[in-house]
Amino acid sequence: MAGRNFLFVPGPTNVPDRVLRAMTVAMEDHRSPIFPELSRACLNGLKPVFKTATASPIIFPSSGTGCWEAALTNCLNPGDKVLASRFGQFSHLWIDMCTRLGFDVEILDTPWGEGAPVERYLASLSADKQHKIKAVLVCQNETATGVTSDVAAIRQAMDSVQHPALLFVDAVSALASIDFRMDEWAVDVCVSGSQKGLMLPAGMGLTCVSQKALAAAKSATSRRCYFDYGDMVTANASGYFPYTPSIPMLYGLRESLAMLAEEGLDNVFHRHSYLAGGVRAAVFDGWRLKLCANAAKWHSDTVSAIMVPEGIQGAEVIARAFKRYNLALGAGLSKVSGKLFRIGHLGDLNELMLLGAIAGAEMAMLDVGVKVEPGSGVAAAQNYWRSHPAERATQSPAAAKAGIAA
Ligand SMILES: *Cc1c(COP(=O)(O)O)cnc(C)c1O
Asked: What would the CATH number be for the domain defined by 18-261?
């Protein structure tokens, strides 16, 4: 098919040309004396992205799922109790992994379309007087339903009852696109991956581990080997890895970190929220459809899960978009299979790229019988973007000094 494929699944995301070029390298000796320059640039460059000064970023040659497993097997003892909520396919899969690895999960089942139920976390934590719960799991951005949860509120709930459990956060589809704060929220393990906000191919698990979690890992007796934090942190201290790292991925990561630093993380977050606003305008004001996220407080700035009307299969929209318009949309997973399609709006993206996706989704919907007004989604997104600032409001240096908002 002529022209380019429009990749609008919520991961893998578009890899910028700059990153692709940076990855086209000859292989080299990963034990050479100059190799630590590359690994240190990556590991140190990740700290501001996780917003940490004290925790250790760790890179595994895996996908995000490997970092889920690493968090559990490094920090917990066999059979330990963990507290987790389930409101979509990804929060479900992490819970499923806990069960398969033999941990005892207290599951807070929550309607798909809502986020982490802070009050219910609080109730379980305050009832746990003997501190049997060793880890609290939260999925910051549920990619299956387009729902973002309030991680800071979960931390506050833990602190309010002085619960000592570790806090594990899945930020796979949030990191480098929605604000995440390792130190401020006292997160113990942040789990992420390369193929979403970090604009890289899949194949690199990126995680960040607090000093408290590293201390827990020293005595935790769950079996692990390949994903051992201790081996990694020891080798990383001298700029090396315990086994062969993917060298092109490290060059790609260094470049994507440079791009994020050049744009500025706050501008990156603003761009995601601004672009998401246009997609939501297309859904609500243009198409008059609903999102799976059932209240504005849950709206995700990285992925929108759009409910198709009764009698239409989401999969038909997706198949039509792919075959006829060369547009890849995300599918409905598990419980919401067939009920929705997803537009990923994270990573290397601007308004006109998204207008292509909105126009394509609109044509595909019309083709399979969804009664949307032709052009309505595109027009609503255009109106939104034309009437909202693309740039984040910044303070003039003089105003900032005087403490006055611009
Ligand atoms: C993509 C994703 C994962 C899984 O990551 P893989 O890299 O596919 O292993 C986990 N959690 C969330 C929220 C995701 O979006």
From this structure: 3.40.640.10
Atom of ligand 1 nearest to the CA of 194: 7
Give pLDDT, residue 406: 39
Contact indicator for 210, 182 with CB cutoff of 8 Å: yes
Residue nearest to atom 12 of ligand 1 (CA): 172
Mutational pocket test of ligand 1: of 62, 90, 180, the residue with most ligand atoms within 8 Å of the beta carbon? 90
CATH superfamily of 6-12+264-387: Aspartate Aminotransferase, domain 1 (3.90.1150.10)
Residue 248 near residue 25, CB atoms below 8 Å: yes
- Among 316, 314, 369, smallest CA distance to 340 is for 314
| Dist. CA 197 → ligand 1 center (Å) | 12
What confidence score (pLDDT) does residue 405 get?
Answer: 46
Distance from Cα 215 to the centre of ligand 1, integer Å: 26
Backbone angles phi, psi at 326, to 5 degrees: 60, 40
What percentage of the chain carries pLDDT values higher than 90? 96
Confidence of residue 252 (pLDDT cuts 50, 70, 90): very high
Listed by start position, the domains of the chain span 6-12+264-387, 18-261
303: how many CB neighbours lie within 10 A of its CB? 30
Mean pLDDT of 43-51: 98
In short, whether 205's Cβ falls inside 6 Å of ligand 1 is: no
Pocket test for ligand 1, best of 86, 170, 194 (most atoms within 8 A of CB): 170
- With a cut of 90, say whether residue 401 has pLDDT above it: no
Q: What is the pTM of this model?
A: 0.96
Q: Is 9 in the pocket of ligand 1 (CB under 6 A)?
A: no
Judged on CB neighbours under 10 Å (0-12, 13-18, 19+), 286 is: buried
Ligand 1 centroid distance, CA of 51 (Å): 20
